[in-house]
Amino acid sequence: MTLVSSLTDRRRGRRAVRSSSRIPLLIGGAIGAASIAAVAYLLWPTWHVQSAGDPDRTPVTIGDTLFNVPTKAFRVKYQRRSGPQERVDLAFLYPSLNPPERAAHKTAGEIAEFQPIDRIFVSIAAHQETLAPETRLRTIYPRYLAQVAPQTVDGLTMRPFVDGSPYAGEDLFTAEQPELAARCTRDRQTPGMCLSEVRIEGADVTFRFPRQWLNQWRDVASAIARLAAQIHVRG
Questions:
Q1: Which residues, listed in sequence order, are joined to residue 160 by a DSSP beta bridge?
Q2: ∠ CA(225), CA(93), CA(231), 5° rounding?
Q3: Range of the domain at 39
Q4: CB under 8 Å to 95, separation ≥6 — which residues?
Q5: Do both 102 and 193 map to the same domain?
Q6: What is the pTM of this model?
């Protein structure tokens, strides 16, 4: 009887020792878990995943001239990169001059309908030592202008090019205040379009827009000047 009692007491003692040794471990684990939870709570706002996107502007060098282009303005995907390029093609909404957002999906019927142009297209290319736009305006275009009296409306002068010339079917528009020079095709099955060129250091910048916009030609001239200043990084 005494032996059985002794064995029972020993077992109870071992269980008591085991239980007492586990208590600090449990307490330590609880404290550690609480600490981790507290740190996670404090740091959680900085752990969210940010969506990766293009920067707002992309610097490109064309004809050794630096331009800072709104990334969303690129019309050609492979041109959407920084560094030296031979040419880039851009688009800006008119009259806001903001880069367009991604085009929404359209049905076949919507595509078939005529959609008025709401943007001005801009191409920047190295001029490769070709004649400057102002030189062509002064020395080349006059050779091919029709010998008719120029038409001037609201400060904007229009003169047609002769048939058989390199610019047949086009008219030349010029103004001085503000300055504007544009070659425009005539309205036919498709609306006429205009080209206006500006040389900026080693690059020629070409602006393309609907001829109809010349009804407010001063706004167009202002938009061209603003865009040229917006994208060109002056040294």
A1: 171
A2: 40
A3: 2-47
A4: 219, 223
A5: yes
A6: 0.75
